[in-house]
Amino acid sequence: MPIFQIKNKKTNQIGIDDFKSEKELQDVVENNLQELLGIEFIASEFWTGGIEGGYIDTLGLDENNAPVVIEYKWDQKNNVINQGLYYLDRLLEHKGDLELVVQKKLSKETTVNWRQPRLIIIAKSYSKYDQYAVKRMGGNIELIKYTLYKDGLLNLETVSTGLVVAGKPQVIKKETTDPFQKRLDWLTEEARKFYLNLREEILGIDEEISEKHFKNGVSFRLGNRTFVSVSPWKSYLRIYLLYKEKLEDPKGVTRSLEGIGTVFAARRDFEIKTVEEIPYAIKLIKQAYNSIV
User: Fold this and answer.
1) CA of 23: how far to CAs of 27, 39, 71, 144, in Å?
2) Which residue has the higher pLDDT, 167 or 235?
3) Looking at the structure, do residues 188 and 208 belong to the same domain, yes or no?
4) What are phi and psi of 87, to 5 degrees?
5) Does the model's pTM come out above 0.90?
6) Same domain, 32 and 171
7) Which of 82, 149, 214, 282 has the fewest other C-beta atoms within 10 Å?
8) Residue where one domain finishes, among candidates 112, 137, 161
9) 3-class SS of residue 4
10) Which pLDDT does position 262 carry in this prediction?
11) How far apart are CA 132 and CA 285, in angstroms?
12) What is the mean pLDDT of the chain?
């Protein structure tokens, strides 16, 4: 995607640059991991353990404390996806090694969520075969394309996001293997329509918003950063906001989650039980969305 700089009402296209090495790309991402991907940096060149182990380029925890393996493809390596999957499997076989590092770096109270481990590949380009392979594999494999421009401008574009469903709102078909589908099937018809109504409103905030499904609910993202999660129940929806600032909530419907265990990473949550409450819910959700734009 070309980028133009405007000077005196004239546009000049900014030229393409590149990193001098894969290590330079890795250093930039690791030093800005939270800002770029919303991921907490844990370790660089992390040894997965065992005699058949290997070194994970970058290891982090996402907003739900799930481990994230990040691998980079600076040159024409063709095996980076399979290599990443291999490291992810080795990591799952040696969970204790990561948990010790996490507790040492963050706190002894930090627990790793092993239910949704993720693999992220960052590369300059992907072939159609790469994208097809990821779709066939399923799971939490994310392909991110980077473009470095002159003057140090960096763009990250999500090419494929595993279980993330992006685009216009649509009813999820029953034959899907989506882990969230069982929860939707459990809802009453009225509750399902209620949820889909809210979903449509959230996706309507920005066409770039996508969703990531979990067993207990769904997280809505802009790029790779979650701003709200929704857990549907038979008679209501529980909404989790990832918002650090003071929330403007004149009706006082939200509560602090400090000291309360939740499935989704969040600072505040609230419930809605009727369609009439959706407009106010969207006002709260937009505050979380605006915080990551």
Assistant:
1) 6, 19, 11, 17
2) 235
3) yes
4) -65, -35
5) no
6) no
7) 82
8) 161
9) strand
10) 66
11) 34
12) 84
